[in-house]
Amino acid sequence: MELVDLLVKNLGVDKDQAEGGAGTIFKMAREQMGSDDFSKLTNAIPEIGKLAKSVPGAEGAGGGVGGLMDAFGGLTGGGGKTSAGGGGLMDMVGKLATATGGDSQLGQLGKLAQLAGAFEKLGIDPGMVAKFLPIILSFVQKKGGSDLVDLLQGALGTDAR
């Protein structure tokens, strides 16, 4: 798969990590988009559908805001983990952020927190979310154009181009 090879080459991850990370991102996009919009993506780039279906056990991936903070370098001041099992206050804030949905900043935070938690469950450093997204968006731009990138960014709540 062309995208997987691109991720392996540019990020130094192995093939399974590249597939799992990209699949997790596309799975979330599929869950957030209408089926017509996701079909536009998969019709233009069939590899996206395959990757989204290939993610094992990513359902209900947690991590909450603690996972997101880990993903962006421990924003609480420490370099280590900020979450302990995804429970307590951080878990509640993550659920609140996810529940707000839409285009709000908390909804975007919730989506990124879900991705970070899913990456962690797949054995990928949650900080890699920030590295996967620009490469994936660039790939989608190249293969499908700006309209598809806009759809994907809308579903993920990002503007990482």
Alpha-beta classification:
mainly alpha
Number of domains: 2
| Strand residue percentage | under 5%
Helix amount, in percent?
Answer: 55-70%
Low-pLDDT windows of residues: 58-93, 100-106
The biggest sheet, with number of strands, parallel, antiparallel or mixed sense and barrel status, is: none
For this entry, give a set of tags.
161 residues; 9 helices; globular; 2 domains; mainly alpha
Reconstruct the topology from this structure:
Layout lengths: L1 H10 L3 H18 L2 H10 L1 H8 L10 H8 L16 H13 L4 H17 L7 H16 L1 H11 L5
Describe this structure in words.
The protein is an all-alpha fold. It has 2 domains: 83 residues, no CATH class; 58 residues, no CATH class. It is 69% helix and 0% strand.
How would you summarize this macromolecular structure in one to three sentences?
This protein has 161 residues and is an all-alpha fold. The protein has two domains: 2-55 and 128-156, no CATH class; 64-121, no CATH class. Helices cover 69% and strands 0% of the residues.
